[in-house]
Amino acid sequence: MRTRFALPALTAAAVLLMTGCVDNSGADAPQGEATGSSAAVTVKKNDELAALLPEKMQKAGVLNVGMANNYPPNEFKDGNGDPAGWSVDLTNAIGAALGLKVNFDIGTFDNILPAVNAGKDDMGMSSFTDTLEREKQADFVNYFSAGIQWAAPVGKTVDPENACGLKVAVQATTYEDTHEVPAKSKACVKAGKKPIEIFKYDAQDQATNALVIGQVDAMSADSPVTLYAISKTKEKIQTAGDAFEVAPYGIPVAQDSAFTPVLQKTLQSLIDDGTYTRILSQWGVESGGVEKAALNVAAEK
């Protein structure tokens, strides 16, 4: 889908700088209780919904969730190394409503769909953009709407639509890495201009740090992620243009899973009773909230 660019070796000084630029700490998120950045959101078990769970899940009493905890503020590690973020809080609320203990199966982003399809995890929760390509691999219960937002150093003007020849940081395997920035780079080449140098990082905080220390000219990430990164870098980076390509996030579930309609109804119940909005508001991402827990929205477009 895109040309890979090798990352230059980091000097020891650069590594030291990168370890301290971004504060990804957040509030503790005790298992089984939905919490946010300010106050806990208590969710009671919904017996009617819990009774609809597949027998295997009812007996196990556990909701296994595949997650890559490196995409703040959506999902990341708090100061104690525990899962935190608004999607973690939302997952805990889903688990509480179903009377299930949530087990976060932390791993790499690209291993989540295989784990869901293999039955190792009941669902994933890791800021998956719902695309037609991904819907060939899993069903997606849509729970948020996010755009793409670029960032650049404070005082530097960067136009995402005219970034030919620039160095742009992305988190590896995200939509920005696999689709958005490569497409822009290809357009540059077609116009006879220099391609965009795509710098890939395993974690979003590494991509942010690369921008803060001047290793790259810009970064591209989902809008809530970029805005959170800006808030954590003490006025060193700023938005570059407006958010664009607004698309849904989806919770991946194995295709035709008996759990899918239960998950969809549970999420809708949290939307309807206001729990969903309270969680999003505590993290400042309520602008991306949805009113309907739709299924496979990308296929409907």
Structural key phrases:
D-Maltodextrin-Binding Protein, domain 2, disordered N terminus, alpha/beta, 2 domains, 301 residues, 11 strands
Characterise this structure.
The chain is built from twelve helices and eleven strands. With 301 residues, the protein is of the alpha/beta class. It folds into two domains: 152 residues, D-Maltodextrin-Binding Protein, domain 2, CATH 3.40.190; 100 residues, Periplasmic binding protein-like II (D-Maltodextrin-Binding Protein, domain 2, 3-Layer(aba) Sandwich). It has a six-stranded mixed β-sheet with strand order 6-11-7-10-8-9, sandwiched between helices. A three-stranded parallel β-sheet has the order 4-1-5. A two-stranded antiparallel ribbon has the order 2-3. β8, α7 and β9 form a beta-alpha-beta unit. The N terminus is likely disordered.
Condensed summary:
With 301 residues, this protein is an alpha/beta fold.
Describe the secondary structure blueprint for this structure.
Blueprint lengths: L11 H7 L28 H4 L4 H6 L1 E6 L8 E2 L5 E2 L1 H12 L3 E6 L5 H6 L5 E2 L3 E2 L2 H4 L3 E15 L13 E5 L3 H16 L6 E5 L2 H9 L5 E5 H10 L4 E17 L5 H14 L2 H8 L14 H4 L1
Parallel strand pairs: 1-4, 1-5, 8-9, 8-10
Antiparallel strand pairs: 2-3, 6-11, 7-10, 7-11
Treating each run of at least 4 consecutive H or I residues as one helix, how many helices?
Answer: 12
* Mass-distribution shape: globular
Q: Which structural class matches the secondary elements? A: alpha/beta
> How many strand elements?
11
Detail the poorly predicted runs. Answer: 1-38
Q: Do you know the CATH architecture of the largest domain?
A: 3-Layer(aba) Sandwich
Largest sheet: 6 strands, mixed
Distance between the termini: 22 Å
Going across the biggest sheet, name each strand in turn.
Answer: 6-11-7-10-8-9
CATH classification class of the largest domain:
Alpha Beta
The sequence of SSEs as H and E is HHHEEEHEHEEHEEHEHEHEHHH
Helix content: 25-40%
In CATH terms, the superfamily of the largest domain is Periplasmic binding protein-like II
Give Rg in angstroms: 19 Å
